[in-house]
Amino acid sequence: MVAAQKINKDLQEERDKVTFVIEEFAKWFYGGPRQLHEKRFLENYILSDPDLQSDVDPSYLSHKEKYEEAIRRVVVILKRIDKLQAEGHKIDNVHKKVLGSMIVSNVFKEGSPLTTHIGMFGQALASLGTPEQQAEWLDRALRCRIWGTYVQTELGHGTFVRGLEVTSTYDPKTKEFVINSPTTTSYKWWPGGLAHTVNHVVVFAQLYSLGKHHGIQPFIVQVRDFETHKPMKGIIIGEIGTKVGFNTVNNGFLAFDNVRIPLKNMLMRNSQVLENGEFIKSQSPVLNYGVMTEVRVDIVNGMAQHLAKAVTIAMRYSTVRRQSPIDPKLPEPKIIEHVTQQMKIFPAIAKVIAIKVAADKLYNLYDEITAEVKSGNLSRLPDLHALSCCLKVVTTNEVAQSVQICRLACGGHGFLNSSGFHDIYGNVVAAQHYEGENTVLLLQTARYLIKAWSQVLQGKKLTPSVEYLSAYKSGQLGKWKGSPNGILTALQAATAGQIALAYKHLEERKKTSSVEVATSQTGIELAKASELHCQVFLLSSLMWSVNRAAKYFSKALGEVFQDILHIYAYDLALRNLGSMLQFVSFSSADLEQLQMDFEASLKKFKNNSIGVVDGFDIPDSVLGSTLGAYDGDVYERLLSAAKKSPLNQEDVNKSFDLYLKPFIKSNL
Ligand SMILES: CCCCCCCCCCCCCCCCCCCCCC(=O)SCCNC(=O)CCNC(=O)[C@H](O)C(C)(C)COP(=O)(O)OP(=O)(O)OC[C@H]1O[C@@H](n2cnc3c(N)ncnc32)[C@H](O)[C@@H]1OP(=O)(O)O
Ligand SMILES: Cc1cc2nc3c(=O)[nH]c(=O)nc-3n(C[C@H](O)[C@H](O)[C@H](O)COP(=O)(O)OP(=O)(O)OC[C@H]3O[C@@H](n4cnc5c(N)ncnc54)[C@H](O)[C@@H]3O)c2cc1C
């Protein structure tokens, strides 16, 4: 298909310079040839459905119409998936990821009202429900015959889950729970799909039984009638209004007026209530937080894909766009020739790879540790929690910033909706808020780091992700070397130094305050330490992966990975100089050299930059951008998109006769 396209000649000229086989890179990026093949098959199979070929640009629709169009598209896709499965094509986890983050993000530019159904409601049933409960609800949920969402946050509390107000009180006489929202602040608020889409919820509420409080527990509640879709008795439900993005996610509010549900509707894989009201405690209260952990892991993977879209747009546009002669005797260059443009885009390309590699490692860790937890071994759960929290934060923050930079790198045209940046940005910044507020999650990782430092002080052995703290304590880190490996050790020294300082100040504060107050007072340093620890993880994972690539891939691709690693490491070092200067000794010559090395790495990568974004393998139908299409036909696309504006469907708008003309006349 691509071969038949007429390609912009500047873009072709740059593609001709690429030194590696793009297909080899794409296979690596998607986890292997099978996965790449399946991804392409699914994208093509779903997006070619005639009912998705509508010429309607949803950004011109009203809020209500956008939702209705999103639901229409949901059903088209669900039918398509049903057909595929009926033909014997198994939808596995790989496909779910593809569906979740690529196709869905383009078909539903502002998010899908069913993402939390698949990603959270289904997951809650699978991980919190007993086998009997799964038999009753899970299969129907997976086949989308019931729709649900994950209802935790309230108007008054999102972060502090233990502070939620909705109550679930067991009535042993009727063997029912009574779910109630006692105050305005106890209204459930935010869940995706809640407002007008779902008919079930997994709701988190404070459990009371036989007059005793047993903390936050999950319950399944039907909120709308199967036939009429009207709210069930005692259910007050609606939508929370327009947002910065995510406008088709149908986020809702929900209150319960003493709603009765049967005993079997408490999800009892972990804790249980017996018929007589007796409460059986789970192995750990945090087992009920498992769905949040899983989604944090998914978010990291999603961030690599969002940024891949943004850099594909910025890179292709920068190859097609010509502006401002560099040498006055020569024609205007492609804007990618300006080194400042390379400085904006190439580190963002490197970040896609670093985040993808970290997400893969996190998925592996998630799978290993979840299997251990299922067999009753919770010992490594804190490792997973600490890593998933800080990675969720740092990747959402970094990607939000990089998407902005890519948008700005496209000049004025980047500000058009048709460029695609607006929707990518809306989806990314939403993730800075949801699934745990970013500062709060950094502080969770910090708890782990402080414990690790205390173990170092006691001479204990640490888990691999924090082993560098022992190396710092024994004076092995802190000498500057300008290689990626040297940057990693410098960053490790800065992180360990920051943790040691936070620990010291925490201990000092503990002399006059409680642990909790002292921890809160030390929050700024703790959050900084977590952020740095995450950067250490990202860089060390990338180094590990690039070294591995040298063994498994062609020499040409191995070199590209090396170039990417260098750009990533130099950029990271330059951005974190302040933190490193406190704990590592540099000369001004070292810093001058770092800047020169960074600039040289941009130059070295330049010829392969277009090849890498092509290797992200994002078809135009998924990218949805006038600036970033494969053929580089930017100006025709901009014009054609503008012509579709509803305002352009008539020569004169009625506001002229209604307002402007009378005004001009009245002032004569
Ligand atoms: C056609 C369609 C096809 C469709 C196909 C579709 C395919 C779809 C594919 C799927 C794609 C999906 C993509 C995503 C999209 C998502 C969309 C948006 C979703 C947004 C959802 C949300 O937004 S949903 C609400 C999230 N709301 C939070 O996120 C609250 C944060 N708030 C807390 O999470 C707790 O409140 C907080 C602070 C920890 C304190 O909890 P607390 O007070 O109980 O505990 P403490 O702080 O006292 O901690 C006590 C000890 O527990 C430890 N610990 C705490 N948590 C732990 C944990 N999780 N695991 C282990 N350990 C944990 C801690 O480390 C301490 O350990 P230690 O004592 O040893 O230090
Ligand atoms: C787009 C979107 C989709 C969502 N989807 C869902 C969903 O499907 N289901 C669901 O249940 N929820 C959902 N949520 C809710 C979301 O999970 C919460 O908004 C999020 O966890 C943050 O909690 P909060 O709003 O209470 O923030 P707050 O905690 O009120 O944060 C406000 C400020 O207070 C600070 N702060 C709070 N506590 C601390 C602390 N301990 N230490 C230091 N600073 C602190 C924060 O850092 C922040 O700066 C969604 C939210 C959004 C935006």
TrEMBL record:
Active site: 435 (proton acceptor)
Annotated keywords: FAD, Fatty acid metabolism, Flavoprotein, Lipid metabolism, Oxidoreductase, Peroxisome
Acyl-CoA oxidase C-terminal domain sequence ranges: 484-665
Pathway of action: Lipid metabolism; peroxisomal fatty acid beta-oxidation
Keyword check for Transport: no
Subcellular location: Peroxisome
Domain of life, per lineage: Eukaryota
Record's GO cellular component terms: peroxisome
Major subcellular site: other
Any single GO BP term: lipid homeostasis
Cofactor: FAD
Domain Acyl-coenzyme A oxidase N-terminal per the UniProt entry, residue ranges: 22-146
Alphabetized GO MF terms: acyl-CoA oxidase activity; FAD binding; fatty acid binding
Keyword Nucleotide-binding among UniProt keywords: no
Residue ranges of every copy of the Acyl-CoA oxidase C-alpha1 domain listed in the record: 289-450
InterPro entries xrefs: ACOX_C_alpha1, Acyl-CoA_ox_N, Acyl-CoA_Oxase/DH_mid-dom_sf, Acyl-CoA_oxidase, Acyl-CoA_oxidase_C, AcylCo_DH-like_C, AcylCoA_DH/ox_N_sf, AcylCoA_DH/oxidase_NM_dom_sf
Amino acids binding FAD: 153, 192
Family: Belongs to the acyl-CoA oxidase family.
Protein name (database record): Acyl-coenzyme A oxidase
Lineage, highest ranks first: Eukaryota, Metazoa, Ecdysozoa, Arthropoda, Hexapoda
